[in-house]
Design a protein that fits this description.
Order of helices and strands: HHHEE
Strand order of the largest sheet: 1-2
Distance between the termini: 28 Å
Largest sheet: 2 strands, antiparallel
Mean pLDDT: 82
Number of helices: 3
Shape: globular
Strand content: 5-15%
Structural class: alpha+beta
Number of domains: 1
Radius of gyration: 14 Å
Low-confidence stretches: 6-12
Length: 109
């Protein structure tokens, strides 16, 4: 699942294909045998792909993927959908493997 957490900043080129690397990691985590070099050859660009391009790549490779723009507080709604990608405000992607429950006054940590 590909989720996006993003400010309005344009993605910088310093992320070094973290989105495609994240997709390969998610594939390995779910038991699929995806080759990172092949993904980079087929889907790689000079700049970090945007979330929509990563979702298209994931779907064409056989995963279910969608793009959602959310904030950190609403991220908990997706905890049953892990693993997924999250795009940070600096344009780089991280793989979310697990989410905990946020402490509340009714449920202290």
């Amino acid at each position: 699942m590909n989720e996006e957490i993003q400010d309005q900043a344009d993605p910088p080129s310093h992320c070094d294909q973290t989105g495609l690397k994240g997709l390969a990691a998610i594939a390995r985590h779910t038991g699929l045998d995806w080759s990172l070099p092949r993904l980079l050859h087929v889907y790689g660009q000079d700049v970090e792909p945007d979330a929509e391009a990563l979702a298209r790549a994931a779907c064409s490779e056989g995963l279910n993927a969608a793009v959602h723009r959310i904030d950190w507080a609403r991220l908990q709604r997706f905890r049953k959908l892990t693993p997924f990608l999250a795009r940070l405000s600096n344009g780089c992607y991280v793989v979310i493997l697990q989410l905990g429950v946020l402490p509340t006054p009714q449920n202290p940590a």
